[in-house]
Specification:
Layout (H helix, E strand, L loop, with lengths): L1 H21 L2 H33 L3 H23 L5 H22 L2 H13 L22 H6 L2
Helix pairs in contact: 3-4
Amino acid sequence: VKEQRDRREALLKKHKEAIDKLLTPDQKKQLADKRAKARAKAGEMQAQHLAKMADKLQLSTEQLAKVKASHTTVKTKMDAVLKNDKLSREERKASIDKIRAEHQQSMAGILNADQLKQWKELRQQGPRPGMHKGGKGMHGGRNGTNSPEKTNSIK
C-alpha cells in the first residue's frame, strides 16, 4: 500500500509538472484565478459554518473571537504542514494529529462544559449529505450521465 501511495504521489507530481509546461501564461493566469475563487468560496463557507456553530452553541462575542482566532491558527499550521514536501507521510500525519489535539484543547479552554459537549456531538455527526463526501462527484453518481456504464454503452 505504501509503495502504491508513493508511486501515485510521484505520478501526480510528474503530471503537474507536465501540465505546467503545456499551459500558456494566459492559461496559467486563468487557473490561478479559478483557484483564488475556490479559496474565496471556501472562506465564505467557513464563515457560514462558524456562524452556524456560534448560533448552535450560543457563543458569546468573546468566545466567538477566541474560536475564530483558534481556527485561524489551526488553518495556518495545517497549511504549513500540507505544503511541506520534506515531511514523510507519517510525519505529516503525526503533525496533523498534534494540531487537531491542540485545537481540541484550545476549544476546551474557550467553551463551557455544556458547549463543549454539544461541540463534540456536532463533530461526531460529521458532514451532512451533499457536503464534502456526500455529493455525486465528477461522473454524476453511479448511474449519472457521465458514468462509465453509460459512456461504455455509447460505443
